[in-house]
Amino acid sequence: MRRRHSRVIKKVVYQILAIFFVAFMLLPIYQMLVTALRPADLPWQAPAPLFPDKITLKNFSHAFQLVPRLPRYLLNSFIYGIGVSLLSIAIAIPSGYALARYKFTIRKPLMIFVIYANMFAPIMLLVPIYTIMKTIGIIDTYFSVILAGSIFTIPLSTWLTVSYMQTIPKEIEEAGFVDGCNQFNVINRVVLPLMAPALVAIFIYSFITGWSQQFILALVLIKNDKLMPIAQGLYQFFSRSSVRWNELMAAILLSTAIPIFLFLLVQKYIVKGLTSGSIK
Amino acid sequence: MRRKTVPYILIIPLLIAFFAFIGFPLYKVFETSFYKASFLNPLARQFVGIENYKWLFNFCYPNPDVSYFLMAFGRSLLWVACSVILKVILGLLAALLFDSPYLIGKKVYRSLIIIPWAIPWAMAAMMWAWTLNPEFGIFNSILLRLGVISSPTSFLASPSAAFITTFVIDAWAGLPFMIIMFLSGLQSIPGSLYEAARLDGASEIRQLFKITIPMIKPVMLTVSLLSMVWTFNSFDIIWVLTQGGPLRATETLPIAIYNTSFRMMRFGGIGKASAMTIAQVLLITLISIFYIKTMRESDKA
Amino acid sequence: MKKLVGVMLVMLLFAGMLLAAQTLRVLMPIGGGYTIEDQQAIAEEFEKDNPGVKIEMEFVGWDNLWNKIITSIGSGSAPDIMYIGSRWIPALADLGAIIPLDAYITAEKKSLYYDTVWDTVQYNGSYWGVVRAMSTKAFIYNKDLFEKYNVKVPTNWDELLEAAKKLHNPKFGIYGIGMSGKRFVSTVTQFQQYLYANGGLIVDSTGKAIINNENGVQALEFYNELANYAQSGMLEWKREDLIKLFETGKLGMYIDHVHNAEAAREKGINVGLFMIPGGPLSDKPYSTVIVTDCISISSQSRNVELAVKFMNYMTSFEKQKEWDLKLGFVPPMVKEKDLPEFQTDLWKPYIDAIQYGTPEAINIKDWEGVQEAIVDAIQTVLLEQATAQEALDTAAYIINLLQR
């Protein structure tokens, strides 16, 4: 009888804790939601109402009126997201495979550098990166931002690949070789499918980074407004002297809805993918 | 194709990427640190040798007794430590919570708490600034209605409050990643261990300390190192919330580097900023080495 | 054969030069009411009136405009025309990044604007830009609250303080005066209003810091005094946030632009306005700070004639009037004030104040650095870590170093 009681109590307590925790994590999003749904012509209320008193969807459409290029900016962010994730995968997978499966001279130092490279952030290397891009001649193109962005997602992506590869037994590949496949066939047909969860994890991680964190790179590497990511659009809600908060919140919600939606689609693979079990 | 050359072929893109876009720029930053140059005219630069490195310790601003760089670095150390400790502890607790058999609707919770990760940091910070606003923020509103506070309180107006608030928000931003990592770590602990312990009559708390924590230590150490390195570079959140204020209370190293490059036209310059960056890189490297060594030691033990 | 090739090359070169002569690169800000569409429309109209000319506009958010300008100058790819805040003129002029425009400003053009407007673009004896947007500020107040607490419109600083005290009733959620304390540009500009209103200046005509003279110290002490009757958590508010508070009806008065007065009125607040009163040490009854943005021509431009033409096109009386009305900026041209659209009670204090106005930042070479120093001083005093004299002495010391 006692055990049952303590079990019920535990369930209740845990549930409460979980709710509080989620509330903490989602509080600003809730505030954003309430503001985005509130008619913009209503005067502000202080203290803030806990629940929306009036709801409208007008702010969303009005956001597009205020910033006509908003769809373009959303598309650009999407391009950067996809671009960075594809490029990251393209570089991380072969490299990770090589590092995991082969013993070659520079393996250890390269592995260390892969982990070490995580410490670099765009803001540190901005100026030289700009110069290099200029020299190659790709300033003011999508590719420059995609390339620059991938640099910072490749280290973790490679590391994840290596870790995950180490959980796949070599025997499976050996079998592939026996069946007559050459090296690259093995990777394609045998390894990649097994690596699906890790692939998804890398994809999502790089996509979100490419989608959201690219602003400072875009600012420096791009001059043409038509190539700017969503953050540039959000700017235009900031007047010199007043901010269109309601529409801004609507726009931010829109711009985070897409990565969040994608994320929720694939999230069970992510946990598997990041599991790897041997990030040790 | 010979098996020996295959790995080298496979890693060519990686090598190019690293060399061209990390190695070379890093070298450039290193080179710039020996020059005096302004962003306005980076080509017109003068060679000044190690002057900039001396400047790191000599330049005392605004407090005439302490070096600008060291102040910023000290703040970074403290701020990063607080944020990372918070992330690790809360992350682990949350992971335990969301892995617990006592919780109903685990899947839903897990999906919900990961949402903050998809939001760009600068925007998340803006949202928090709004949420914590004394007049219009929901947080104040809730506290007022619960009677916890009697009048609107500010969380960003005093130096100490701003410091705490910013690292808490930084922790908030990094929690989803932490939780995922810990969850995966927890899920890789074989259930048989717990079975055996239960048959032996061990209480749940004992199981926690004897099985869970030791098995999760490697993940914990790896992930906290990664987090520390990332948090050191945290710029957007502080910038949006306080711009380094009030009165420089939240002026961590990235903010100071930014100010030196772009704000302090007379006192600063990109040469000095490069020196600061190199110093930061060196220091983080040292800390990482120290950290990894400790990790190896505890593994052996 | 060689001759033919030679002739072709010359023709190509010529054609290339012609083509180059026909493209004008313009850098414009967005945000703050400036939209891409509005500015692009002007470019298109100019292109129509001038066939063969192409205008390439590049847009950057206000926050990043300074960075964009200096990076493009540094990399040798500066646009022909740059829209700049006039406060940046000393820095850009010293760098040789922009050209003086005296040769292109006719006497007729000059007479179109107020003298104080030209003062804002003057440096080292030359004019470096043509003003495109101007703002002045005044006090916006809540007439209902004034009536409720029996407050008269203040005409000097003692009355201003009295008014703030009477209006301040935090128990009912009402704050006397809205003030900015966040580590942000607008805190400095808000304080500047009081500084200049009291006859103080940041630097004198030789560029030496005088912000710590008795005018300045008194202004900062007054600012600190008023802070007692301001909204809670003042140090996390910047001026741009105050309008929201004013719109809730919880704020008695504060200093801001005219279009926020309009916005508040639309939200149902009974809005009134009064000019910023002069301080005890000033010889002027009222005061305001005149901030302008202007159109400048970069020294890297190879199309100066065309640039001047476009510049004059944008700043013709008609176009300027359109611009000001659309964006809610204070009209910089004298004749505009006689237009019926500017005769409302909202515009009046802003336009009347021009005669008492002081330009924002003449003779300051490193505006960013100076701002840092001043905001440090303000926050130090607000946090009670030093007296106004001490804080401003430190600021003056730093400013002098920056001015060297």
Q: What's the SSE blueprint?
A:
The complex is a heterotrimer of chains A (280), B (301) and C (404).
Chain A: H1 2-37, H2 58-66, H3 70-101, H4 107-116, H5 122-136, H6 142-165, H7 170-178, H8 183-194, H9 196-212, H10 215-221, H11 230-235, H12 245-275
Helix pairs in contact in A: 1-12, 2-12, 3-6, 3-9, 4-6, 5-10, 6-9, 7-8, 9-12
Chain B: H1 6-32, E1 35-36, E2 46-47, H2 51-58, H3 68-99, H4 106-113, H5 121-132, H6 138-146, H7 159-187, H8 191-199, H9 204-232, H10 236-241, H11 253-263, H12 270-300
Antiparallel strand pairs in B: 1-2
Helix pairs in contact in B: 1-12, 2-12, 3-7, 3-9, 7-9, 9-12, 11-12
Chain C: H1 2-21, E1 23-30, H2 36-49, E2 54-61, H3 62-74, E3 81-85, H4 89-95, H5 107-112, H6 115-119, E4 122-123, E5 126-127, E6 130-135, E7 138-142, H7 143-148, H8 157-167, E8 175-177, H9 185-197, H10 214-226, H11 239-247, E9 251-256, H12 258-266, E10 271-274, E11 276-277, E12 286-297, H13 304-314, H14 317-327, H15 347-352, E13 357-359, H16 367-382, H17 388-403
Parallel strand pairs in C: 1-2, 1-3, 8-9, 12-13
Antiparallel strand pairs in C: 3-12, 4-5, 6-12, 7-9, 7-10, 11-12
Helix pairs in contact in C: 9-10, 9-16, 16-17
- According to CATH, the homologous superfamily of the largest domain in chain C is Periplasmic binding protein-like II
Secondary-structure class of chain A: mainly alpha
Structural Rg of chain A: 24 Å
Indicate how many domains the architecture of chain C comprises: 2
Number of domains of chain A: 2
**What is the general shape of chain C?**
globular
Number of strands of chain C: 13
Q: Name the beta content range of chain C.
A: 15-25%
Question: Beta-sheet strand percentage of chain A?
Answer: under 5%
- By oligomeric state, this entry counts as heterotrimer
At the fourth level of CATH, the homologous superfamily of the largest domain in chain A is MetI-like
Which H/E pattern describes the elements of chain C? HEHEHEHHHEEEEHHEHHHEHEEEHHHEHH
Question: Regions of chain A with pLDDT < 50 over 5+ consecutive residues?
Answer: none
Bin the helical content of chain C: 40-55%
Summarize the structure.
By secondary structure, chain A is mostly helical. Chain A has helices at 2-37, 58-66, 70-101, 107-116, 122-136, 142-165, 170-178, 183-194, 196-212, 215-221, 230-235, 245-275.
